[in-house]
Amino acid sequence: MRFFGTTWVDHDGGYGLRRAGVAVGSLAAAAAGCLVLRFAYQGLETAETGGFVNALVVVMFAVCSAIAFRKTWEGFARRPADPARDESLRSLRMIGFIGALLAYFFRSLTEAPGEKLRRGEYETALAQYEKRRSTRAGNPAARKKPKRNTKRK
């Protein structure tokens, strides 16, 4: 929702263009990341570290990207139940940044990433506000105060 401001509420103010820009930008960033990882892999081949290390690096990036994709995708639908656990996965998400960027790309094809979650929270807050607002009777100072029974027995 970082790139959308409040345009997601009514889908105005260049919302469609922003969504297209986010999709293209995240896909371009993922492609650039793959290129950088390819250079890193070529560096490992040049250093002749061995087939085991090369395979280990490829598997590590693949697993981290898959986990980052899943966690990012889930983050668009609901808030994390345990924010501390989610915070502990930050380094894993950084290693698997390609998966996170691809999740961002795929989500931006249908909606602004995180829009469904924010829209639900927004509509709930709006309904609560309307409920509180409708139950008010106006100016509280203008209300008549009930008379108290001052007689003692």
Describe the structure concisely.
With 153 residues, this protein is mostly helical. It has seven helices and no strands.
Give me the number of helical elements: 7
Q: Report the mean per-residue pLDDT as an integer.
A: 81
- Regions with pLDDT < 50 over 5+ consecutive residues? none
Main sheet overview: none
Written overview of the protein:
- With 153 residues, this protein is mainly alpha-helical.
- The protein is 71% helix and 0% strand.
- The protein has seven helices and no strands.
- α2 packs antiparallel against α6 and α3 packs parallel to α6 (97-108).
- The longest helix has 32 residues, at 15-46.
- It is elongated.
- The model has no long low-confidence stretch (mean pLDDT 81).
Fill in the keyword field for this structure.
153 residues, mainly alpha, 7 helices
SSE topology:
Layout: H1 7-10, H2 15-46, H3 51-77, H4 83-88, H5 90-95, H6 97-108, H7 115-135
